[in-house]
């Protein structure tokens, strides 16, 4: 009888130990998408700051979104990115940041220097603990230099609150071609 009690106590202690390790491991895994990942370019979130930091854009285009004819946006073009803001036509006023499309490998995000040119496998490894809503593949618009939008598929990863996201559009060789910066679901 004493031997059975000892075995049960050892078994319970072993289960508690295993559960503790699982909980600690889960707590230590970090979602790589966090506010600091965009420290180098967080000025893009406010139109006035973009103009102040980057100067006059190469061009701007007012456009009604292809998928929502009621919403007007302002496409702000620089050599290495397109930034999209809401635009109030009536007041002729630039509104909130919608998203940015990064087109240059000069931007390195976070400590792991996520950038254009990385492989899909590298991205998946870095962002494996990020939130990824179902379905994981999103549809988004990639704008060319004339403001023409092409709907394409990409993978978006989000922070723990789904407030901040990075999307990746891959070429035919599974190499990052564009990075999409996004606020909110």
Describe the protein's architecture and organization:
- The chain has 185 residues and is an alpha+beta fold.
- The chain folds into two domains: 1-30; 35-183, no CATH class.
- The chain has helices at 2-28, 47-54, 120-126, and strands at residues 59-65, 68-77, 81-88, 93-102, 137-143, 149-158, 164-170, 176-183.
- Strands 1-2-3-4-8-7-6-5 form an eight-stranded antiparallel beta sheet, with no helix packed on it.
List keywords for this structure.
185 residues, alpha+beta, eight-stranded antiparallel β-sheet, 8 strands, elongated
Mind sketching the topology for me?
Layout: H1 2-28, H2 47-54, E1 59-65, E2 68-77, E3 81-88, E4 93-102, H3 120-126, E5 137-143, E6 149-158, E7 164-170, E8 176-183
Antiparallel strand pairs: 1-2, 2-3, 3-4, 4-8, 5-6, 6-7, 7-8
**Would you count the extended β strands for me?**
8
Helix segment tally: 3
State Rg: 22 Å
Gross morphology? elongated
* N-to-C CA distance: 59 Å
Query: Biggest β-sheet, characterized?
Result: 8 strands, antiparallel
Mean pLDDT: 79
Hey, roughly how much beta strand do the residues contain?
35-45%
Q: Unreliable segments (pLDDT under 50, ≥5 consecutive)?
A: none
Cross-sheet strand order for the largest sheet: 1-2-3-4-8-7-6-5
Oligomeric state of shown chains:
single chain
Encode the helix/strand succession as letters. HHEEEEHEEEE
Helix proportion of residues, in percent?
10-25%
Count structural domains.
2
Structural class: alpha+beta
């Amino acid at each position: 009888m004493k031997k059975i009690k000892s075995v049960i106590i050892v078994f319970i202690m072993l289960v508690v130990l295993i559960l503790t390790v699982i909980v600690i491991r889960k707590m230590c895994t970090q979602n790589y998408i966090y506010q600091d990942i965009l420290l180098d370019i967080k000025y893009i979130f406010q139109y006035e700051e973009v103009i102040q930091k980057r100067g006059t854009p190469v061009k701007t285009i007012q456009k009604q979104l292809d998928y929502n004819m009621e919403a007007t946006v302002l496409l702000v073009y620089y050599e290495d990115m397109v930034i999209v803001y809401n635009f109030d036509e009536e007041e002729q006023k630039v509104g909130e940041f919608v998203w940015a499309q990064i087109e240059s490998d000069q931007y390195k995000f976070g400590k792991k220097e996520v950038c254009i040119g990385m492989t899909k496998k590298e991205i998946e490894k870095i962002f494996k603990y990020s939130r990824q809503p179902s379905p994981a593949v999103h549809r988004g618009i990639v704008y060319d230099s004339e403001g023409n939008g092409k709907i394409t598929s990409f993978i978006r990863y989000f922070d723990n609150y789904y407030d901040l996201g990075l999307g990746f559009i891959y070429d035919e060789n599974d190499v990052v071609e564009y990075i999409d910066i996004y606020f909110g679901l």
